[in-house]
Amino acid sequence: MLHKVVRATVPYSLFVYRTLAKLGLRRLTRFVPICDVDGTLPAGLSRNELLEWCELDTFDMFSPAFDNPQRISTVAGWLKEAGAEVIFSDFVEVQPGNNAAVVRAIRPISLSQGTSS
Fold it and tell me: What are the strands, taking DSSP E only, across the chain?
């Protein structure tokens, strides 16, 4: 049912989102029930691709069955506990004004886990 509602409302929501952005009212776009179109979706999508991405991302935004956000330090701690060496844990700017949480780690391969030829 939620997916049907999202599918039906995305074209209108996208129109409102774009109109607010063009009018210089980008701050108001956060009140439009649609995913962050300019901050998260790839550039250069066709109109149909944009509608499909918006539909799927918006549905995902409203139906996160297994969404359980964690702090970067918590994820880094889990990796350390699993035997990995954390080489980076912080926010990274992926687009101007949009950050993503990133944790990079290396798990050393022991000699007993070596690859076979």
Answer: 85-95, 98-106
Domain of 105 in residue numbering reads as 72-109
The Cα 36–Cα 22 span in angstroms is: 15
**49 vs 44: CA distance, rounded Å:** 9
Q: Which residues contact 18 (CB under 8 A, 6 or more apart)?
A: 37
80 and 56 in a single domain? The answer is no
Q: Pick from 29, 46, 49: which is nearest to 97 by CA?
A: 29
Euclidean distance between CA atoms 75 and 58, whole angstroms: 26
- What is the per-residue pLDDT across 87-114, written as a single tens digit (0 to 9) for each? 999 999 877 777 889 999 998 876 665 5
